[in-house]
Amino acid sequence: MKEVERIADQLKRAHEGGAWHGPAIDELLKGVTAGQAAARPFEGAHSIRELVAHVEAWERAILRRLGGDPAQIYQTEEDWSSADVSGEEAWDAARRKLTETYVALREAVLQLDDAQLDEPILPNMSTRYVSLHGAVQHTLYHAGQIALVRKALGLKSLTVDSDTAGTI
Q: How far apart are CA 81 and CA 161, in angstroms?
C-alpha cells in the first residue's frame, strides 16, 4: 500500500468508522438534532455545530492548500464560525458540507504521489505529510470533544463495532 493510500484510509477512519480510538465523527453525529447540535451543556465548550463547522473549515483549508491557496484561516471567522445555523435543514446542510469536504480532501490525497509528501504543502509551510496527518489528528481531537458534549447532553453512549475498529 502506498503512503497516500494509508493517509486516505486514516481520513476515512476518522470520518466513517473503524478508527482505533473509538467512534468516528460520522458515528458521533448520528441522531444528533439541530437543537442538540446548537446546545452548550457546559460553560466554555463549543457546541457540536461549531465543532463540525470548525473541522470542515480546516479540512477545506488543507484541501485549498493542496490546490495552491494558502488558506490562512487561523483566528478568522472561517476558523470558528459564529454564524447562526438553526433548524434541521441547516444542520443537515452543515453535516453534508463536512462530508463533501472530507471526501474531496480524501480524493485529493489519493491523487498525490508518495514522493510529494516530503515537499512543503506551500512555501514556508509544513510538508504535505505533516499537513495531512495534522488534518486527521485535528479531526479526531474534535471528535473527542463531540463525544464529551454528547455525554453532557445525556445522549446515548456509542460503542465501536469490534469488526471494524483497530485492535487496542
A: 33
Q: Classify residue 39 as exposed, middle or buried by CB count within 10 Å of its CB (0-12, 13-18, 19+).
A: middle
Residues 39-55: tens digit of each pLDDT: 999 898 999 999 999 99
Residue 127: strand pairing partners: 120
Domains of the chain, CATH where assigned: 3-152 (1.20.120.450)
Nearest of 109, 134, 145, 104 to residue 21 by alpha carbon: 145
Task: Give the bridge partners for 42, in sequence order.
Answer: none
Specify whether the CB–CB gap between 99 and 106 falls below 8 A: no
Convert the pLDDT of each residue in 99-129 to its tens digit.
999 999 999 999 999 999 999 999 999 999 9
CA gap 150, 155 in Å, rounded: 5
Cα(108)–Cα(4) distance, rounded to whole angstroms? 10
pTM for the complete prediction? 0.91
Q: How many angstroms separate the CA atoms of 44 and 58, rounded?
A: 21
Burial of 158 (0-12, 13-18, 19+ CB in 10 A): middle
> Is the separation of the CB atoms in 139 and 14 below 8 Å?
yes
